[in-house]
Specification:
The structure is a homotetramer. By secondary structure, chain A is α+β, with helices and mostly antiparallel strands. Chain A is about 25% helix and about 40% strand. In chain A, a hairpin with a 5-residue loop joins strand 5 and strand 6. Chain A is elongated and about 45 Å long. The interface between A and D is medium-sized, with 20 and 20 residues. Strand 2 of chain B pairs antiparallel with strand 2 of chain C, so a sheet runs across the interface.
Chain lengths: ~130, ~130, ~130, ~130
């Protein structure tokens, strides 16, 4: 799969911290929201799965912070997929400031699906994303 | 001023709590973001004012919770203004679920401007909003 | 019931916004956490009830913001109960800055219990709190 | 420096997401708060530095999620330091569930100090931590 999913949004002022920039922890929220939108665009509904006790979880995240977002900034979060073992998925993600196309965050987030007994599960719909 | 400002957005999954609905505290964030967008649409920039040490603050909030938002819901936050004393502004706000136009939250948020010494200030731009 | 429950904690830096003070929405989190601790001290477990699909919900909140908390501040959140109709409970709450005993927030939060069909329920354990 | 700093705290219910566990993004808040407490224990005040326009920033984070925290859990966040280049500091951190000493998160967070012009700065107080 070579296309890159893109979700655009806008910084909300309560996401800034006392340094006047988006707090580091908030980028996790941005990245998660974009992953869920990406999955939804492929018919995979995180919330519906959770109600069925199939939990999509993050097992590892790596974030490089390169530039900051601040009040009023528009940004895009990109998502693309790569394999990460038999039952894991790697999400390559970038947060991009739209005004100047600066890359603010580069991330690799590795996820897995757990079934109702907490065991790793192979969801056909997820596996199909990698084809 | 009789027009109602309207900001539309979408629930993000991390905003839900263990009950599977948007956490009560998150509506404060929704309301704040919509107020700042409303002010910005009138040329009043919360962040720029904060950098000048003029702080727009909330002195009172009243929220009635009537229905819940959950994963995937689209919502609108409405904002309209009313006077609230000589140096205060009242923001009448509603959070509306777009699928069925249900009112989820009705709110009155009273704000004030404080100058660099923490004293109530009359900002001409804010006062003009009430005309 | 005349005793006042008290939960003490400390401001976390990520709770501050660009004004360098605890963001308004965060006080709602402080108040919620203290209510849950209060209920737990009386054997009422919000999370356990949620798992049984009995949801304790907030139907109304009134907050008066009187002073700010900032980085490093220690604070106490007080909780006491009052009746609020046949199936509702009123939580009188205050957030107090410990350094000078300043009242930062005064709040009234009205809650209700909903059963698995979303109907108001009278939980004997909750009702007993008012005796 | 071989001692390990340890900050203990308790999960707050609003930190859980719809899966009934602490949301991934919240661990970043836990880690940040513990780093700030660690720095403060060595006389380095993040907020005071921010007011002087010396910003301590995160340039990279790596988190491995190994077990979950849920409602009511007590946890400890450990912090120890390691060098990470001439002007960077590495914070080795772990989030530990106290009931069974399970490691929930292992993290490496790399930080830097930026001066008022946004340039990397060598803060003597920070450098001294590595001796």
């Amino acid at each position: 799969m070579t296309t890159v999913f893109r979700h655009e949004d806008r910084v909300r002022d309560y996401e800034l911290d006392m340094q006047g920039i988006v707090n580091n922890g908030v980028y996790f929220n941005y990245l998660e929201h974009a992953r869920h939108e990406f999955l939804l665009s492929h018919g995979i509904d995180f919330a519906e799965l959770a109600r069925q006790q199939i939990n999509l979880v993050v097992v590892r995240s790596e974030l490089d912070y390169k530039a900051s977002l601040t009040s009023g900034d528009h940004y895009a979060v990109e998502v693309s997929l790569e394999p990460a073992g038999r039952v894991r998925l790697g999400f390559r993600q970038r947060v991009i400031r739209l005004a100047d196309e600066a890359v603010c965050v580069e991330a690799l987030v590795v996820g897995a699906a757990l079934n109702e007994r907490g065991r790793p599960a192979r969801l056909p719909a997820l596996v199909a994303l990698l084809d």
